[in-house]
C-alpha cells in the first residue's frame, strides 16, 4: 500500500484500525504500509523501489500529497508506468482520495486525473489494473461520521475503506 497519511493510518483509533491492516487481516496476508504523511509524491526513486518489491498486489493510493492537480497529472501515470515496467503482471489498484466531499470541485479534478491514468493503462492493454473510487466509499449520510478531522478517516471511515479495497483486491487476485 503506497500513499499519504491516510494509508499510514492517521486518524485511526489504534495502529491496527487503518484500512491496510484491516484488509490484511481479512485476507490473512502480510502487507507493507508505505504511507508517508505529507511526503508521498510518487518520486521516480520511490516508484522504482516499490517496483522492486515482492508483492501480489500493489495499492496505489497516491493523490493527497500531490501539492496540486498539475503535479498529480505530471506524476500519477508516470509513477504507475515506472512500477509497471518492473512488474508487468502484478495487479495495480489505483484509488482516488476518500475525502472527495471536503472539496468536491477540487476532488473531481483530481479524481479525473487518476481516472485518466486508469484509462490510459487499460487502453495500453493492462488487464491487471483496477480502480477504487474514493468518492463512493463513504455512505453519503455518514460523511461527517467517517473522518476524524474532515480529511483523515476515523475507525468508521477506515472500515468503509477496507470494505472497498478488500472487494477489489479479492477480485484482482481471483483473476490472476
SS summary, helix count: 6
Q: N-to-C SSE series? A: EHHEHEHEHEH
Strand order of the largest sheet: 2-1-3-4-5
Radius of gyration: 15 Å
Record field, number of beta strands: 5
Overall geometry: globular
Unreliable segments of 5+ consecutive residues: none
Structure class: alpha/beta
Q: How far is the first residue's CA from the last residue's CA?
A: 19 Å
Beta-strand percent range: 5-15%
Give the biggest beta sheet: 5 strands, parallel
Mean pLDDT: 96
Share of helix among residues?
40-55%
Overall description:
The chain has helices at residues 5-8, 19-27, 44-51, 69-86, 104-123, 155-174, and strands at 2-3, 34-35, 58-61, 92-95, 129-132. It is an alpha/beta fold. A five-stranded parallel sheet has the order 2-1-3-4-5, with helices on both faces. Strand 4, helix 5 and strand 5 (129-132) form a beta-alpha-beta unit. The mean pLDDT is 96.
In short:
45% of the residues lie in helices and 9% in strands. The chain is built from 6 helices and 5 strands; from the N terminus they run E-H-H-E-H-E-H-E-H-E-H. It has helices at 5-8, 19-27, 44-51, 69-86, 104-123, 155-174, and strands spanning 2-3, 34-35, 58-61, 92-95, 129-132.
